[in-house]
Amino acid sequence: MTIQHATLRQLQIFTAAARSLSFARVAEQFGLTPGAVSFQIKQVEGHCGFPLFERVGRGVVLTEAGRDLLEHATLILQALDNADRRMQALKGVTGGNVTIGLVSTAKYIAPHMVSRFQAERPGVSIHLQDGNRREVNAMVAKGEVDLAIMGRPLDADELLAEPFARHPSIIICAPGHPLAQAPTLRLSDLADSDFIAREEGAGTRALTDAYFQGHGFSPRIVMTSSSNETIKQAVMAGIGIALLSRHTVNLELALGMLRELRVEGLPLMRSWYIAHRRSLPLLPVHAQLRSYLLERGQAIIDSLHAGHRALASGT
I need a surface site. Which of 37, 132, 139, 288 has the fewest CB within 10 A? Predict the structure, then answer.
C-alpha cells in the first residue's frame, strides 16, 4: 500500500495533528476520541511505511517523514479547498463558514462586528483564530484563515489588505500613578517610569519600539507579556505603565480603572486592515464580510465606545 490509498479524512486528521501536536485537540476538533485519532494516524503510517510521530516526554514531535508528508498533504488539501471555493463561487452561495484570523488586540472589537454581520446573515458560521501579528500574517499566507483583522500586513506581496477603521494607541497608567493627573507630558517626563511591553513579534511591540526609537527614548522595560489582559492587570497593580491600543482599555478608562497619560504626540494613529491571500479566491460570503467591515467597521467601533461611556456615566 502507498500513501495514495490514504483517505481525504485521514489526511485532514494527520495535518491537524501535525500542526497542533496534540491528538486530544484534534479529537475535539473532529468529534472523535483520542483513540480514534491514533488509529487514523496509524492507518496513514501504514500507507506510507514510516512512523510520522515520535513521543518525546509527554508530547509528540514529527519525524522527518512526518514533516515531508505535512508539506505535501497541506498542498493537497489547499488545492481541494481552492477548487471547492471556486465551485461554490460559481453557485453564488451566500451562507457557509468563515474563518477569521485576529491579532490579539482585535478580539476587543471583532466579536461586535461579527455579531452584527451574523444578525443579518444567520446562516453564516464564524470561527475566530487569534495570534500575534507575525502568526496571523503566516495564517493568511498559508491559507489557514479566509480573512484576517490585523494591522498593516508584514508581506504585501502575499496578502491583499485594505484599511477599514482607525486604530489609536495610548500610554496608560494606574489611577494612583504620580503622573496620572498631569495635564500634558513630554516623553522625557517618563524616563523614570517602569514600562510593561508586549512580546517580540506583536504589532503593538513593533509600534512601541519604533515610536520610542524615533524619539531617542529608551524605556525601562521591567515586564513583557503576550497578553493584553495581563498587561492591563499589571498596570492596574502599579507595576508600570504601558503603550497599548485604546480599543483594549476603553472600558477600563471609562470606569476609572485606568488612566490615559496625556503625552505630546499621542495617540499614535494606525489603521485596522481586513486582509486575505491574494491568490485565494473569496467565496461570496467572505467577500460580503469584507465589504461589511469596509463600510461599517468604523461606525461599529464608535458605537461600542459610546456604549462604554454611557455605561460608566450610568445613562
Answer: 288
pLDDT of 315 reads 54
- CA distance linking residue 148 with residue 209, whole number of Å: 24
Q: Which of 39, 57, 75 is the last residue of a domain?
A: 75
- For residues 90 and 30, give the distance between their C-alpha atoms in angstroms, rounded to a whole number: 28
The Cα–Cα gap between 23 and 26 comes to: 5
DSSP-based three-state secondary structure for 162 = strand
Where do we find the cell 485537540?
Answer: 25
Count of CB atoms situated within 10 Å of the CB of 17? 27
Q: What is the pTM of this model?
A: 0.69
Kindly report the backbone phi and psi dihedral angles of residue 158, in degrees, each rounded to the nearest multiple of 5, phi listed first: -85, -30
Residue-range definition of the domain harbouring residue 193: 166-270
| Predicted confidence (pLDDT) at residue 1 exceeds the cutoff of 80 | no
Same domain (yes/no): 233, 286: no
Please name the residue that has the C-alpha cell 469596509. Answer: 294
Is pLDDT above 90 for 142? no
Quote the cell numbers at residue 39.
488509529
The type of residue at 105 is T
Q: Rounded CA gap, 55 and 60, in Å?
A: 4
As to burial, measured by CB atoms within 10 angstroms (0-12 exposed, 13-18 middle, 19+ buried), residue 210 is exposed
